[in-house]
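Re: [ENG-882] Designed sequences occasionally contain unexpected residues at chain ends

Forwarding the minimal case from QA. Structure tokens:
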């Protein structure tokens, strides 16, 4: 059995992705900061027949993130799929004229340093397997900066650049790197925007291994 590690796992998209990949036989490593919530989610998934376990980590703390991914590998099996999709904090979304250099530290640690730390932890195992998928999930500000969400716009741009470079660097090693841009709110009442629908799109990115960037729907004009 191989494992999908979901960094930023929660009861919405994280749970839906866990269920979707779990149906395909993956074990699921759930990673976020709150162990109690992770344990509850793992128990819920277990009732659906999905093998899941929670590993608490803060993506801004490289040591804790690496340790969580290492423990997941030891306890669940090799990580074949990594999904990096932690939800940014509200304080990262300040208007551009109110944003200081210090305000950008958190978003950059969260989106850039965290993703690099996660990838560097799991990539050797994917190389050993001879296959792997790394999924980046971002909002529309990753490709169209928003003046009222400066921190995420800057940090997502850095994350996107890293992901694109990574895609080009490891493609010949049978490791697919894909980015899903979601320009809408998940679970906003529209069926196409449900967590389950987005999870299905992520499964397609993994299984079909197409282009680097996929849009859940076109960006609004």
């Amino acid at each position: 059995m191989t494992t999908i590690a979901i960094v930023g796992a929660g009861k919405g998209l994280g749970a839906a992705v866990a269920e979707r990949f779990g149906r395909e036989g993956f074990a699921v490593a759930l990673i976020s900061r709150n162990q109690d919530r992770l344990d509850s989610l793992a128990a819920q998934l277990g009732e659906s027949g999905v093998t899941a376990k929670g590993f608490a980590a803060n993506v801004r703390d490289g040591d804790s993130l690496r340790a969580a991914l290492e423990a997941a590998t030891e306890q669940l099996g090799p990580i074949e799929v990594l999904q990096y999709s932690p939800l940014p904090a509200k304080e990262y979304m300040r208007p551009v004229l109110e944003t200081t250099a210090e305000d950008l530290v958190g978003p950059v640690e969260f989106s850039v340093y965290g993703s690099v730390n996660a990838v560097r932890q799991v990539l050797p195992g994917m190389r050993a397997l001879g296959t792997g998928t790394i999924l980046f999930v971002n909002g529309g500000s990753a490709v169209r900066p928003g003046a009222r969400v400066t921190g995420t716009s800057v940090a997502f741009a850095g994350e996107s650049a890293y992901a694109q470079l990574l895609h080009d660097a490891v493609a010949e090693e049978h490791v697919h790197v894909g980015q899903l841009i979601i320009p809408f709110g998940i679970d906003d009442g529209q069926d196409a925007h449900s967590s389950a629908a987005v999870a299905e799109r992520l499964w397609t990115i993994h299984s079909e291994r197409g282009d680097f960037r996929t849009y859940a729907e076109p960006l609004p004009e």
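QA comment: On inspection the terminal residues look reasonable. The chain has one domain: 3-215. Proposing we downgrade this to a documentation issue.
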